[in-house]
Amino acid sequence: MPHSDELLWGALGDISRFAALLTMAELGLADHLAHGPLDTSELAVRAGANAPALRRVLRELASMGLVRTAGPGAYDLTEKGTALRSDAPDSVRSSIRMLGEESFWYAIGMLPATVRDGSSAFVKRYGHVYDHLAKNPASSRLFNDYMTARAAALTEGLAKRYAFPPTATMVDVAGGKGHILATVLHANPQMRGILFDLEHVADHARRTLAAESLAERSEVVAGDFFAEVPAGSDVYLLASVLHNWDDEDCVKILRNVRKAMNPDGRVLILEAVLPDDEEPHLGKDIDMRMLAIFNGGTERSRDEFAALLSQADLALTEVVELGSGASLIEARPR
């Protein structure tokens, strides 16, 4: 267990290291270094940066193992740093850029103010996050890329570790661009899928499913899950949905799902499930961002999920660990 001083000073250093990481992502340094080492001056020209300032950031990045010196004044990309390349299979570049996006960075910095009065400083300045993103296309693209990258590992775990009913129809509620639904349908060739989301998301989803050769096994339905969801299906997936809302709104969503589902259907919730102990957990880190950005949005424990489900006449039946801090919660009619 680290000494308290080490823990506290380490946290302070994390802010500086993230700032250097954000600079690397924003300036595309990994892409510029992808084909070999460059002199700092040349790298600055390619990245549109000030060379002396860039040199100082590279020194910090080298201490983090993301770049290494390759001769006087020159740097090369390390294997660890390749994760910052835009074309890396598991690239984290968009995720870092999203967390450093101006409004999100503001929200984290204003967390003390949010905690003082219980109301998100982000919402006060920018409005609801999805309304803000809809008005800011560049930020919206970053957010979508971030969510796609975040979902990739979770989706693979979902398809491999959960036994879907072989011939079921699954409704992916607030399914976004359709990457999760596509992965599940590819892994279960007899299943059919319905992606349900807001109208402005629907066209993206149709393009994704068509590109995945799944148009004949799927459909996209536009609507509002606070009003209703498509009825008569066997499986309803809520992936990273409930943590955006307070308990009252979550119960409304779950009741609409319960009303729509087949009598022997099931609800699947893909979220972080917070442990009851004091050990570190990725969900606890994410919960700080939820607190900063949403009014009422929160990560929850198993017991808290069970309580929400009970209010919608559903019973929690299983929790499957998927890795990367996420779990799959299965619920069925009571």
UniProtKB/TrEMBL annotation:
PANTHER family documented for this protein: O-METHYLTRANSFERASE CICE, PUTATIVE (AFU_ORTHOLOGUE AFUA_4G14580)-RELATED
S-adenosyl-L-methionine among keywords: yes
Ranges for domain O-methyltransferase C-terminal: 111-312
Domain O-methyltransferase dimerisation residue range list: 18-83
PROSITE patterns referenced in this protein's UniProt entry, alphabetically: SAM_OMT_II
Record-linked CDD domains: AdoMet_MTases
GO MF assignments: methyltransferase activity
Protein keywords: Methyltransferase, S-adenosyl-L-methionine, Transferase
InterPro entries: COMT-like, COMT_C, COMT_dimerisation, SAM-dependent_MTases_sf, WH-like_DNA-bd_sf, WH_DNA-bd_sf
Organism: Nonomuraea helvata
GO biological process: methylation
Keyword Transcription attributed: no
Protein name per UniProt: Methyltransferase
